[in-house]
Amino acid sequence: HALQDYPEDVFCEGSFSSSYSLMNHSRMHVGFGSPVYEPNRGHGLIMLRQPEQRIISSYYDRLHDWNLPRPPSDLREYAEGVRGCSVRMLTVTSSFPACFLSPLAPPPSEEEVDVAVQHLRDGFAFVGLTEEWDLSICLFHAKFGGSCSDAEFDNMRLGSGRPHDEAVYDTSELRGWVDVADRRLYSEAQKIFEQDLARFGVSAADCPIACRSAEKEMEWKQ
Questions:
Q1: Is residue 200 within 8 Å of 192, Cβ to Cβ?
Q2: What is the pLDDT along the chain (222 residues), one digit of tens a residue?
Q3: Which H, E and C letters describe the chain, residue by residue?
Q4: What's the maximum distance between 2 C-alpha atoms anywhere in the chain?
Q5: What's the DSSP call for residue 74?
Q6: If you ran DSSP here, which 8-state letter would residue 161 be given?
Q7: Of 79, 45, 46, 51, the residue nearest 65 (C-alpha)
Q8: What CA–CA distance (Å, rounded) separates 32 from 41?
């Protein structure tokens, strides 16, 4: 485990929330809802992924978050069983993973999605997109400083079912199904991301070249 090799108090002192860590002692996907949201408001970092792509990826990752003793009959059943995971991550708080619910549970309500969107807007100092990984890395450094390394742009966890890291998963097996709740949250993330790119002057034209050079750090718009 990385945190065993690189203890937080030695390598990242002060970088992790103590109140959230108390809830997330298992290092699982514990939610960011009340009561941990308020003391950590404005200090979060999140990378969001297009909902159906994330679901298919987790399907190939040993049915991640599937909580029935039997496997799903197909990808569509699995998708319906884990829908709304991103919304739940921003609204649910417990000592258990926020998405580890029964597939029979109802999807997030409109009110829960509203809360998740508000938490995304107010609770996070940085919002990145998995589909825009390189730009997200450049944006992070533009906002918080420092030059980036080549390793930050590597795909270290290429999932199965894709020939290379530029490909996307085929969604045809979902037969038109979409994750309505998480799509709305992802749409908000895209807006925040685009606003920050414009605010800090980050674009594909100079990413990652400017980010890799410490001397060019000040060229980013502040």
A1: no
A2: 566 777 777 877 777 777 766 555 555 677 888 788 999 999 999 999 999 999 999 999 999 989 899 999 999 999 999 999 999 999 987 666 778 777 778 899 999 999 999 999 999 999 999 999 999 999 999 999 988 888 888 877 666 655 556 578 999 999 999 999 999 999 999 999 999 999 999 999 999 888 876 444 444 454
A3: CHHHHCCHHHHCCCCCCHHHHHHCCCCCCCCCCCCCHHHHCCCEEEEECCHHHHHHHHHHCCCCCCCCCCCCCCHHHHHHHCCCHHHHHCCCCCCCCCCCCCCCCCCCCHHHHHHHHHHHHHHEEEEEEHHHHHHHHHHHHHHHCCCCCHHHHCCCCCCCCCCCCCCCCCCHHHCCCCCHHHHHHHHHHHHHHHHHHHHHCCCCCCCCHHHHCHHHHHHCCC
A4: 56
A5: S
A6: T
A7: 79
A8: 10
- Please give the pLDDT value at position 164: 56
CB neighbours (10 Å) of residue 88?
A: 27
What pTM did the predictor assign? Answer: 0.85
User: Which amino acid type is present at position 33?
Assistant: G
Task: Output the six-digit token pair for 20.
Answer: 């959230």
- Tokens coding 29: 């996907």
Q: What span, in angstroms and rounded, lies between the C-alpha atoms of 142 and 49?
A: 21
Indicate the burial class of 119 (C-beta count within 10 angstroms; 0-12, 13-18, 19 or more): buried
Token digits for 141?
């450094």
> What are phi and psi for residue 154, nearest 5 degrees?
-80, 145
- 40, two tokens: 């950590």
DSSP state of 190: H
Cα 1 to Cα 44: distance, rounded to the nearest angstrom: 22
